[in-house]
């Protein structure tokens, strides 16, 4: 199992590299099997010369060998179990041990298997409800216990940042909780569609756990490569995105929608910043779900305040949608998975899964830090057999104002029919 690293903002989710250790474990197990076979072959086929059925010493020798083989077999069996457990621990697939001290009682209650109230389900054969929680939560049990320590039916702790840290460590999905989340007053919300480009009131979002405490503070910040001043909806750079091109890599929404032969109705925006792509699509009666986290800013609350649909999840999580449901998937630098091609493959296959046949994959200004990075992505796209409707590689000046020229890839690809 290779090393996987996904960086989103300042958070990083990692799976430890286990290739070398797993290989050593496999070699040890192979050596154990070979040793067992050799001893068994020796025990059952060894026969000294001039043997006699009435020779007591020969009988004793056979019994001694048999005892030794049995002892060796028990030792090997024990070793194999230990090695299997070691490999299981290395790969991170171990179940959560609820017998450890200082485990929050709410975790134990949540993870208990609860029988169905009406007994066995006749269609599925299921007899009990099994709770879902990320397997890597095992490696963050102290933080998870802190997250699950609260007063039942009382107010939840103001700890959304703790929950996000757990998610970025791969503890996803998080367990459910039996407490009431902190609410914001939702002051000054505008009706749809005026809400799409209306400034959001500072009091309508929670600023706990964030460096900035108002939108004025966020306006001039580069929160990511795709979000430079993206909370300033009056800024020309933001409110003209997707409708006015600043370079050849910037595709216009109307041009892309015209490429959808069967029409575009619903879409998915991965890492969509403050939701401006979804807002422009909403103006064209296209519903877009925006997947984002709250890294350094209240992205989810801001998107919701604009009357749009935010989805709070990391890119390590399998997309919670059925197969072949979206007409359009829009993604930019969320495809940057720290140079790990196997991680990019998992992400691309999941994107392909939720995109319908004939649907469009819009790769929007993907930053090519090197030729190797561009080649890896290009070869992967070619493996999927997508039709290239638009494909532009060009340079543009860094949006943060450094003046440095950078290489970007933009493309509109159409999912093919596969047998």
Automatic annotation (TrEMBL):
Gene Ontology BP terms: methylation
Transmembrane feature ranges: 24-44
Gene3D superfamilies: Vaccinia Virus protein VP39
A GO molecular-function annotation: methyltransferase activity
Organism taxonomic ancestry: Eukaryota, Viridiplantae, Streptophyta, Embryophyta, Tracheophyta
Protein name: S-adenosyl-L-methionine-dependent methyltransferase
Family the UniProt entry places it in: Belongs to the methyltransferase superfamily.
Domain of life: Eukaryota
Keywords on record: Glycoprotein, Membrane, Methyltransferase, Signal-anchor, Transferase, Transmembrane, Transmembrane helix
Natural source organism: Dillenia turbinata
Topology of the protein relative to the lipid bilayer: Single-pass membrane protein; Single-pass type II membrane protein
Keyword Transmembrane: yes
CC terms in the record's Gene Ontology section: endomembrane system; membrane
InterPro entries: Prob_Methyltransferase, Put_SAM_MeTrfase, SAM-dependent_MTases_sf
Compartments (UniProt record): Endomembrane system; Membrane
Chief location bin: membrane
């Amino acid at each position: 199992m290779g090393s996987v690293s996904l960086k989103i903002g300042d958070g990083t989710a990692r799976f430890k590299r286990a290739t070398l250790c797993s290989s050593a474990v496999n070699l040890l197990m192979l050596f154990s099997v070979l040793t067992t076979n050799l001893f068994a072959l020796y025990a059952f086929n060894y026969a000294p010369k001039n043997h006699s059925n009435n020779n007591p010493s020969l009988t004793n020798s056979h019994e001694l060998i048999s005892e030794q083989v049995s002892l060796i077999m028990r030792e090997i069996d024990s070793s194999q179990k230990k090695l299997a457990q070691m490999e299981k621990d290395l790969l991170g697939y171990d179940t959560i041990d609820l017998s450890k001290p200082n485990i929050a009682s709410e975790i134990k209650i949540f993870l208990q298997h609860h029988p169905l109230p009406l007994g066995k389900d006749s269609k599925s054969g299921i007899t009990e409800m099994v709770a879902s929680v990320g397997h890597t939560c095992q490696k963050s049990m102290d933080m998870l216990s802190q997250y699950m320590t609260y007063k039942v039916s009382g107010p939840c702790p103001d700890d959304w940042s703790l929950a996000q840290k757990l998610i970025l460590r791969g503890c996803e999905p998080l367990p459910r909780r039996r407490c009431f989340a902190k609410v914001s007053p939702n002051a000054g919300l505008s009706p749809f569609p005026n809400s799409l480009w209306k400034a959001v009131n500072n009091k309508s979002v929670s600023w706990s756990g964030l460096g900035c405490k108002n939108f004025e503070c966020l306006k001039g910040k580069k929160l990511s490569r795709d979000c430079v001043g993206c909370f300033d909806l009056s800024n020309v750079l933001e409110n003209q995105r997707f409708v006015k091109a600043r370079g050849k890599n910037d595709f216009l929404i109307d041009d892309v929608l015209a490429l959808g032969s069967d029409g575009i109705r619903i879409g998915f925006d991965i890492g969509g910043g403050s939701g401006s792509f979804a807002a422009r699509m909403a103006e064209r009666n296209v519903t877009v779900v925006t997947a984002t986290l709250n890294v350094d800013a209240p992205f989810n609350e801001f998107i919701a305040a604009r009357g749009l649909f935010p989805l709070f999840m990391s890119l390590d999580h399998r997309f919670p949608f059925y197969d072949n449901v979206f007409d359009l998937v829009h993604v930019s630098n969320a495809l940057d998975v720290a140079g790990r091609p196997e991680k990019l493959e998992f992400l691309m296959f999941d994107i392909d899964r939720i995109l319908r046949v004939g649907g469009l994959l819009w790769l929007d200004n993907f930053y090519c830090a090197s030729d190797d990075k561009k080649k890896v992505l290009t070869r992967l796209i070619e493996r999927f057999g997508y039709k290239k409707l638009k494909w532009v590689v060009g340079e543009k000046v860094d949006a943060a104002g450094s003046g440095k020229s950078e290489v970007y890839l933009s493309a509109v690809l159409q999912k093919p029919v596969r047998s």
